[in-house]
Design brief:
heterodimer, A: mainly beta, Immunoglobulin-like, seven-stranded mixed β-sheet, globular, B: mainly beta, 12 strands
């Protein structure tokens, strides 16, 4: 399995609080991604990174920010969490080689009350 | 629009029966294609991928998939299903090599009857 660690694995917090999720990889892959998975919506891309300090928005980026100061770490921040951001969040990594797949972490289950 | 569709939301099969999960893509060129499996509480695990060449690709856990350009399809098959195969299955397409155009289908949930 790809060396991807997401932390925390579970978190419960209150509306309005800041939340940061961490994705750590040991594969030295260039691309990293944050998705959310919700019933009826499948996987939706929040943000992705194509290198250190190089990030871009996905289809559901409102209310989220990301940072990547090191190759191995990709942080997702909810500046002021809302109940609509209750979800399961997945990190993925990908080698930039031709046709390479994404590899996923085990997810973070986030509940915002 | 570029998309990946999985027509079946939920499929139920008996243990030992054969399985086929359908996937269609909508894209001008042939994308790179993948099948993933997700067990409850887990992330997505790569089953197999189609890159080019042979249209029948073998994957892990006894799965295979066949690419048919004429039908824009990449269906997943297994000759004999095991109870442990119960999970959600996602088809995905990589539409370019830069990584951001990685499109997932909505998933098919597989239930296995004893």
């Amino acid at each position: 399995d790809a060396g991807i660690t997401q932390s925390p694995r579970h978190k419960v917090t209150e509306t309005g609080t800041p939340v940061t999720l961490r994705c750590h990889q040991t594969e030295n892959h260039r691309y990293m991604y944050w998705y959310r998975q919700d019933p009826g919506h499948g996987l939706r891309l929040i943000h992705y990174s194509y290198g250190v300090k190089d990030t871009d928005k996905g289809e559901v980026s409102d209310g989220y920010s990301v940072s990547r100061s090191k190759t191995e770490d990709f942080l997702l921040t909810l500046e002021s969490a809302t109940s609509s951001q209750t979800s399961v969040y997945f990190c993925a990594i990908r080698d930039p080689g031709l046709g390479q797949p994404q590899h996923f972490g085990d997810g973070t289950r986030l509940s915002i009350l | 629009a570029q998309s990946v569709t999985q027509p079946d939301i939920h499929i139920t099969v008996s243990e030992g029966a054969s399985l086929e999960l359908r996937c269609n893509y909508s894209y001008g060129a042939t994308p790179y294609l993948f099948w993933y499996v997700q067990s409850p509480g887990q992330g997505l695990q790569l089953l197999l991928k189609y890159f080019s060449g042979d249209t029948l690709v073998q994957g892990i856990k006894g799965f295979e998939a066949e690419f048919k350009r004429s039908q824009s399809s990449f269906n997943l098959r297994k000759p004999s299903v095991h109870w442990s195969d119960a999970a959600e299955y996602f088809c995905a397409a990589l539409l370019d090599n830069y990584g951001q155009n990685f499109v997932f289908g909505p998933g098919t949930r597989l239930s296995v009857l004893p």
